[in-house]
Write a structure and sequence with these properties.
Shape: globular
Number of strands: 10
Strand order of the largest sheet: 2-10-9-4-5-6
Strand content: over 45%
Helix content: under 10%
Distance between the termini: 37 Å
């Protein structure tokens, strides 16, 4: 099983990024998918999740209206569109093929400069 994140990088405050999670080795069709992040010196934090069909989404309160989670089961991919980025969004972002973050990828760095 492999989850591979891409699309991160350095962006200025107010900018946007779209993260992609490519999953291989398992079918994601019946799996709730999630995004987590870990800022330097802090623990793993849940950011967003999406149900199996992509019809129901949920977000950390601070990210509502700025982040959009989506998925394409046919491509075995999940996405996180991040807009109006702030320096406090700087973190390693991980995708997960579950609710808890137990089955997650190695992560992709997102850095937002002031």
């Amino acid at each position: 099983v492999q989850l591979a994140e891409s699309g991160g990088g350095l962006v200025q405050s107010g900018g946007s990024l779209q993260l992609t999670c490519k999953v291989s080795g398992i079918s994601i069709d019946k799996r709730v998918m999630s995004w987590f992040r870990q800022a330097p010196g802090k623990g793993l934090e849940w950011v967003a999740r999406i149900d199996t069909r992509g019809e129901v989404t949920d977000y950390k309160d601070a990210e509502k209206g700025r982040y959009t989670i989506s998925r394409d089961n046919a491509k075995s991919e999940m996405y996180l569109q991040m807009n109006s980025l702030k320096p406090e969004d700087t973190a390693m972002y991980h995708c997960a093929a579950d609710w808890s973050g137990t089955l997650k990828g190695q992560g992709i760095q997102v850095t937002v400069s002031p």
